[in-house]
Each structure stands twice: as C-alpha cells, then as structure tokens.
Amino acid sequence: MAEFSIIDTYFNRKNANSVDLGVGDDSALLTPPPQQQLVICADTSVAGWHFPLDTHPHAIGWKSVAVNLSDIVAMGAKPHSILLALSLPQIDHGWLKGFSQGLYDCCDQFGVSLIGGDTTQSPHLTITVTALGWIESGKAVTRSGAQPGDFICVSGTVGDAAYGLRHLGHPLQKRLDYPSPRCQLGQQLKGLATSMIDISDGLAQDLGHILDASNAGAIVHLESLPVSPEVAKLEQEKKWQLALAGGDDYELCFTISPHNYQLLMQQKLDVNLTIIGQITQNLGLTYLQNGVNCSIQFHGYQHFA
Ligand code: ADP
Ligand code: MG
C-alpha cells in the first residue's frame, strides 16, 4: 500500500470544525476569525525514547494530540486543528488503525480537525504533531506575567504519570498514556491568570520557567501539593520527587491575583484547583514544609542533559 492509500485510509476523515480545505491538496486553508492571533506549536515523539516500543498504538495516537492541545490551551487559546508528520519503519495496518483511532478520539473529544501532514518511511517510528489554535489578539497568557503576591495554582494532581510509569499495569498508568489536556480551564484563565505553563517536565522545572520569564521568585508549600491517594502513601521524599519532578502530567500551573482567583472560583470548573504557594519579589524557589524552610532540589526531565 502506497503513501496515498495510507493517508486516504487512516487520516482523511471528516473535519470536526470549520476548515476551508483539509487533507488532499498541497496545503490546507483556514480563514482566521477576525481579531484573532494564530497560536501554533509542535511536539515530536520517538518510539523507544518518548514511549516504550510496545505502548498501545491507540494511546500513542491519543497522547500525540493531547500533548499539543495542552500547549495550545496553556496560552489560554482555543485549539482548532492539527497536522501530523508520521515517519514509519514499515506499514503495519493493526498499528495504523489503533494509532489513527486514538488520534481521532482525542481530536473529536476537543473538537479539533486533522487538516494535513506528511507520511514518510524511516528506520525509527517518529510522530510530530503540529497544533493550531486561535486567541483574541493580545490576550494570550504567556509565562512572563507573574506578579509578587499572585497565588500559584495547579490543576488536578501531579506525579500520577510518573507513578504510572514506575508501576505499569496500575490504574494510574492511564494518566501516563491518556493525558487530559485542560482545554476548558485554559480558556477560562484567559483574562484572569497572569502567567501559565503546562506541566510536561515536572512542576519544579516548569514553575521555574514561569519564575525565570517573569523575573520573580516563589514560595511553595510542600504539604499543599495535590497528589493522588497512591502517591500520598509514599514516603515523603519519594512523594515530593514524583509531585515536583515527575513529568508527563499535562496539568496547568498558573499564577493569578487573589482578586481574580475569587472571580475564577465563581465559575464552574471541570477540574480541581489547588493553591500551592505565592509569587515573591525575591528570586528563587523556596520550599516550606508546614512553614519550615526545606532545602530540597528537584529537577525535571531534560533532553541532552
Ligand atoms: P506533497 O507531496 O504536496 O507534500 P503529500 O503527498 O505529502 O503532499 O500529501 C498529500 C496530502 O495528504 C496533503 O494534503 C497532506 O497534508 C496530507 N497528508 C500527508 N500525510 C498525512 C498524514 N499523516 N496525516 C494527515 N494528512 C496527511
Ligand atoms: Mg505538493
């Protein structure tokens, strides 16, 4: 089966939203909504590196999309569509069926269309998804707006994906394989949060990016970190290691003024939020355990490290 027949069989379904021209021509065409900025990002996964070779293809498809939607919504934007660049070592119909189904399941859940891509052969299974979204001009929530006195908040729980990776077969493996991009929350935070990032490399490292970009510091209360019951049962060091440095959570970490936090709390949210600390003028990240200074250092995932 040639490249075109793979595209037609697996990657040419009906669009989930408004697309002027999708899969099938040299490029796709979209009409930008008036007064909106294009938000665009990409993420690559390499088999055997970003996921084990035997990961279920449906999960690989889901996650390839989810991690990109997470980056779009971490700007406060509405995801619109994706492009898929797929490099395959061989044609495996069972794999392609599961993968495309997982990819479309995630697209459908969040009203996103697959509008194009590229299909090639290569020795390594490599998946690059590019995601596009829209946001009212000037309204994007970047990493650089945190202000002293802002609350630092985290959605959901952190450390689950890292726990799942260490306990394959445990129900928390679902959090590793099927992350939920916080699409509703991200858009609700537009106009309210002062800065935002999605947690892909571990809370400590990702909050560090907000602090660097905002030229600010933070106090984080270790006992406030939101963790699942399984993670809460671990010995303290281990628990914090997972919560602060375990990657792949795809929760949102954001800063917000106490006033705007009250406004946010008046809205209906589809995920729990936890205040874990506060932004300070003094630079650096200080951890407190029940009010007492705690000198721990956690670093998240880094390529080429
Ligand atoms: P070109 O040779 O002009 O680059 P291709 O033959 O690579 O075009 O692709 C044909 C069409 O199929 C294009 O619209 C392209 O965006 C789309 N396409 C190719 N691979 C994929 C894929 N894996 N998923 C979705 N669309 C794809
Ligand atoms: Mg062409």
From TrEMBL:
Binding site for Mg(2+) 5: D201
Chain residues that bind substrate: H50, D248, Y301
Record-listed ATP binding positions: G117, D118, R143, S200
SUPFAM superfamilies in the record: PurM C-terminal domain-like, PurM N-terminal domain-like
GO biological process: thiamine biosynthetic process; thiamine diphosphate biosynthetic process
Record Gene3D superfamilies: PurM-like C-terminal domain (3.90.650.10), PurM-like, N-terminal domain (3.30.1330.10)
Record: residues binding Mg(2+) 2: D43, D71
Documented EC number(s): 2.7.4.16
Entry's Gene Ontology molecular function annotations: ATP binding; magnesium ion binding; thiamine-phosphate kinase activity
Class of the enzyme per the UniProt entry, highest EC level: transferase
Residues reported to bind Mg(2+) 1: D43, D118
Binding site for Mg(2+) 3: D26, D71, D198
Record keyword ATP-binding present: yes
Alphabetical UniProt keywords: ATP-binding, Kinase, Magnesium, Metal-binding, Nucleotide-binding, Thiamine biosynthesis, Transferase
Pathway: Cofactor biosynthesis; thiamine diphosphate biosynthesis; thiamine diphosphate from thiamine phosphate: step 1/1
Binding site for Mg(2+) 4: D26, D71
Domain PurM-like N-terminal: from-to ranges: 24-134
Family designation: Belongs to the thiamine-monophosphate kinase family.
Leftover remarks: Reaction mechanism of ThiL seems to utilize a direct, inline transfer of the gamma-phosphate of ATP to TMP rather than a phosphorylated enzyme intermediate.
Function text: Catalyzes the ATP-dependent phosphorylation of thiamine-monophosphate (TMP) to form thiamine-pyrophosphate (TPP), the active form of vitamin B1.
NCBIfam families per the UniProt record, alphabetical: thiL
Protein name: Thiamine-monophosphate kinase
